[in-house]
Structure formats: C-alpha cells, structure tokens
UniProtKB/TrEMBL annotation:
<dbReference type="InterPro" id="IPR017659">
    <property type="entry name" value="Formyl_CoA_transfer"/>
</dbReference>
<feature type="binding site">
    <location>
        <position position="42"/>
    </location>
    <ligand>
        <name>CoA</name>
    </ligand>
</feature>
<dbReference type="InterPro" id="IPR050483">
    <property type="entry name" value="CoA-transferase_III_domain"/>
</dbReference>
<keyword id="KW-0808">Transferase</keyword>
<dbReference type="GO" id="GO:0033608">
    <property type="term" value="F:formyl-CoA transferase activity"/>
</dbReference>
<dbReference type="Pfam" id="PF02515">
    <property type="entry name" value="CoA_transf_3"/>
</dbReference>
<feature type="active site" description="Nucleophile">
    <location>
        <position position="173"/>
    </location>
</feature>
<dbReference type="GO" id="GO:0033611">
    <property type="term" value="P:oxalate catabolic process"/>
</dbReference>
<comment type="pathway">
    <text>Metabolic intermediate degradation; oxalate degradation; CO(2) and formate from oxalate: step 1/2.</text>
</comment>
<dbReference type="InterPro" id="IPR003673">
    <property type="entry name" value="CoA-Trfase_fam_III"/>
</dbReference>
<feature type="binding site">
    <location>
        <begin position="141"/>
        <end position="144"/>
    </location>
    <ligand>
        <name>CoA</name>
    </ligand>
</feature>
<feature type="binding site">
    <location>
        <begin position="277"/>
        <end position="279"/>
    </location>
    <ligand>
        <name>CoA</name>
    </ligand>
</feature>
<comment type="subunit">
    <text>Homodimer.</text>
</comment>
<comment type="similarity">
    <text>Belongs to the CoA-transferase III family. Frc subfamily.</text>
</comment>
<feature type="binding site">
    <location>
        <begin position="100"/>
        <end position="102"/>
    </location>
    <ligand>
        <name>CoA</name>
    </ligand>
</feature>
<protein>
    <recommendedName>
        <fullName>Formyl-CoA:oxalate CoA-transferase</fullName>
        <ecNumber>2.8.3.16</ecNumber>
    </recommendedName>
</protein>
<feature type="binding site">
    <location>
        <position position="108"/>
    </location>
    <ligand>
        <name>CoA</name>
    </ligand>
</feature>
C-alpha cells in the first residue's frame, strides 16, 4: 500500500442525517473511504439503533456501532428554529447530505430539496425511501422485509411447498445504501463537470428488484415457453403464471443444490453448495466417483439430467457421507467443481483468512472494548480503510458548533434551550 496517497474521499464533507440501516450503511462506507461524515441525531437517544438489541446495558448496541464507525456525532433538535439554523449552516459548507427518514419528514422540518439546493447549489442530496415517487405506496414507512416483499425477493425465496421467505442478507437496507452510494459518487463526478449538485434518490423496492433481475428474466421466460427447465418443478410439476420458489436451485444455467456432508445429523451447517457446471461435467463425474456418467446418454447432457437431477444429487450425497464439508470441498476444488462449505456465522467470525484480508475486523469502541465487525469488502491497491469506533451521542456537538462560529455563550444558550 502507498501510504502517501490521501484517502480517496478526503475533503468530502457529508452530513449524515440517517438512521437504522439503509442510510447509515451508505455514509459509513463514505467514512471508511475518507470522507468527513457528521451524523446528525435526535437529542433523545439519537439513532434508534443505539438502543435496539443491546448486549451490554447502557452501552450503544452493536447494531449502531457496526453501521456508524468512523463518523462524528452532533446531537441537535432540528425542529427548533435554532437547530434548523445550524443545519442550514452545515448545508452551506457540505458536499453531501444523506437522509432516510419517513416520507415527508424533511419537508416538514423545513428542509425541502428546493430549499437545500438554494442554500448550496453544489450539494448532493442523497435520499432513501421505501418506494419511488411514482409508486402508489410512496407514503409508506418501510423496513427491510417490507422491501424484500415488494421487490420480488420474498415471492421467489424459499421452497415451493412453504410460504414466501425473507433472506437474511439485508437486500432492503444495506443493499439500498450501497446503491445510494453509487449514485452519490456518480453525482460527485457529474459535479466536477457541471459545478452543480443534484438529488439522488433510491427506493428500497427498486434496489431489491435490481438484485432480483434474474427472477424477472425467469418471469419473461415463463411467459414465453410455459416452463423453467432449471427449477426443481421441471418437468414433473406444472408451472403457474408467476415465477415459483425454487428452493436451493441455482439461479443461472448451472444446476446446483445444498448437499449433506458427514455429521449433518448433529450439525445444522454440515452442508456444501454443489454446482454442476456444464462444461465441467466429465471432471465432476470423476470427482464424485461416477466416471460411468460421463458418456451415459441419461446423464451426459443437461437436458437428460434435469428430469432426474435429484437422484443425481442423492448419489453425490452418498459420496459425501464420509467427508466433512471441508474435506469435500478440498477434493472437489481439485476437479474445478464450483462449491463451498455452508459456513456458520461462528465459522465466519473466527475465520483467519477473513481477518487477514480485513473483511472481518476487530474495532475498539469506547466503553465496550473490542468488538468484531465487517471491514471493507472493497479492496484498493493504493488504500486500505482503517475502521475506527462509532461516536457517542453528541460527542462532537461542541466542536462542530465552534467550527461553525458559535461562541461559548451561544453554545451555552442552545444547551439551556434544549436545542443541543
Ligand atoms: N431533531 C428533531 N426531530 C428529528 C431529528 C432531530 N435531530 N431527527 C429526526 N427527527 C424527526 C423526523 O423529522 C420525524 O418527525 P415527523 O414524523 O414529526 O416529521 C421523526 O423524527 C421520526 O422520523 P423517522 O423517519 O425516523 O420515523 P420513524 O422512526 O417512525 O420511521 C423508518 C423509521 C425507517 C420506518 C422511516 O424513517 C422510513 O420509512 N424511512 C425510509 C425508508 C428507510 O430508510 N427504511 C430503512 C430503515 S433500515 O431498516
């Protein structure tokens, strides 16, 4: 790493008027990459995640610390004229303002996009809502699973004989934050050319759908031909008129499934994900001890395999029965079979390689001590993000107001008036 290179986003001033997960995930990544991110929070407890699911009484919850590292905190009542005046001063000096309040909350506070743009035409305004402006549901408050329901993830996840199922991956929250980050960085580049900032909006429904595009592909295929040959339903169960839930089937042209390994009876994660790569069929047969499958017409093409794909997987499970998931992957990798052990969160937390790469990091947090969190999944050749602790509520209030030109007396008055 070249330590002389400044952090990529150094000098970018971000007002982080966000809460819960979608907005904070976006601004946290900006902070990791060097932006000066100031979290603006309510006086009464700040971001709700400070209090939710606490593991240590009287200390900010991991939910908060894991989404707000590398930031500063200003605690202020922005619904007072004095608090609004502080926000307006901050907006005049900032490059980016990000918010994810309920629809209309910022307008009610006196901070409409028109007003923000007037205060600082260069500022980029990033906004997350559950639904986009054209949606009949645009007034709804939205959390993660609501977005997964509306974005197509729920109806297509799970097993065909069970209910729609949520994903544990934050498709609605962090994923939307990442989309917003792409939009904000794009708008920052556009500003280099135009000198003017713009509003960047991402809805959670749209961001979920963007990740479910293969299911929209399948809907079109279904309407065209009436079946989806890579789904477990094919060819024995009739398809309806909408994409069904496909269990653990592979999403592309390569069939795959979750297969049991040695010890599955006692260990809920003793499984691998196994993929049959069409171009690797001969080596796959060799790997699982079935060389006779290579040229057998009942097995040698994807089309021939599909009607009895679960018998094939059952045979492969017999081969896996005396191998742990790690032993199995170690063998299969030598035959170029795309596969991985199903890792528990415990295995991930203690994985030395994820620690070495900075994907999982230990961070020192005031009052809490060391805790584990995710580091940057994005790796740069000239820069390595350092993850630091999250701010205490209002930890930087005095510093921020002093920097804005408020005198000690004025700050004391704001305190007396319960503005800060
Ligand atoms: N000072 C004074 N008031 C403040 C403030 C501050 N510093 N910060 C926020 N507020 C006010 C807001 O203006 C709002 O006031 P009004 O409702 O009177 O206008 C109020 O606090 C509550 O805002 P909120 O948006 O946080 O409302 P909520 O907690 O009821 O809803 C959520 C939370 C997430 C459902 C909603 O914000 C939402 O739908 N956001 C958009 C979608 C989204 O990002 N969801 C992802 C959440 S991650 O799972």
């Amino acid at each position: 790493m070249n330590t002389e290179v400044p952090q990529p986003l150094s000098g970018v001033k971000v007002i982080d008027f966000t809460g819960v997960q979608a907005g904070p995930a976006c601004t946290q990544m900006m902070a990791w990459f060097g932006a000066d991110v100031l979290k603006v929070e309510r006086l009464d407890g700040g971001d709700v995640t400070r209090h939710q699911l606490r593991d240590i009484p009287d200390h900010d919850a991991l939910y908060f610390t894991m989404l707000n590292s590398n930031k500063r905190s200003l605690a202020i009542n922005t619904k007072t004229p004095e608090g609004l005046a502080v926000m307006e001063k901050l907006i005049r000096e900032a490059d980016v303002l990000v918010e994810n309040f309920a629809p209309g909350a910022l307008d009610r506070m006196g901070l409409s996009w028109d007003h923000i743009h007037e205060l600082n035409p260069r500022l980029i305004f990033g906004s997350v809502k559950g639904f986009n402006e054209q949606s009949p549901w645009k007034d709804l408050k939205v959390y993660e699973n609501v977005a997964q329901a509306a974005g197509g993830a729920l109806s297509t996840t799970g097993f065909w004989d069970g209910p729609p199922t949520v994903s544990s991956a934050a498709l609605g929250d962090s994923n939307t934050g990442m989309h917003l980050l792409i939009g904000i960085l794009t708008a920052l580049l556009a500003r280099e050319k135009t000198g003017v900032g713009q509003k960047v909006s991402v809805s959670m429904q749209d961001a979920v759908l963007n990740l479910c595009r293969v299911k929209l592909r399948d809907q079109e295929r279904l309407e065209a031909v009436g079946y989806l040959e890579e789904y477990p339903q094919y060819p024995n169960t009739p398809f309806g008129d909408a994409v069904p839930r496909g269990g653990n089937a592979g999403g592309g042209g390569q069939p795959g499934w979750v297969l049991k390994c040695k010890g599955w009876q006692d260990d809920p994660n003793s499984y691998i994900y196994f993929t049959i790569q069409e171009q690797n069929w001969a080596k796959t047969c060799e790997a699982v001890g079935k060389p006779e499958w290579v040229d057998d017409p009942a097995y040698s093409t994807a089309e021939a395999r599909q009607p009895h794909i679960f018998d094939i997987f059952a045979d492969i499970e017999k081969w896996l029965a005396d191998k742990t998931k790690y032993e199995a992957v170690d063998i299969l990798r030598t035959y170029d079979v795309p596969c991985a052990p199903v890792l528990s969160m415990k295995e991930i937390a203690y994985d030395p390689a994820l620690r070495a790469s900075g994907t999982v990091v230990e961070v020192e947090q005031e009052g809490r001590g060391k805790y584990l969190t995710v580091g940057s999944p994005v790796k740069f050749s000239d820069f390595s993000p350092t993850i630091t602790g999250a701010p205490l509520l209002g930890e930087h209030t005095i510093d921020v107001l002093s920097d804005l030109g408020y005198t000690t007396d004025q700050i004391a008055e704001l305190k007396t008036a319960h503005v800060i």
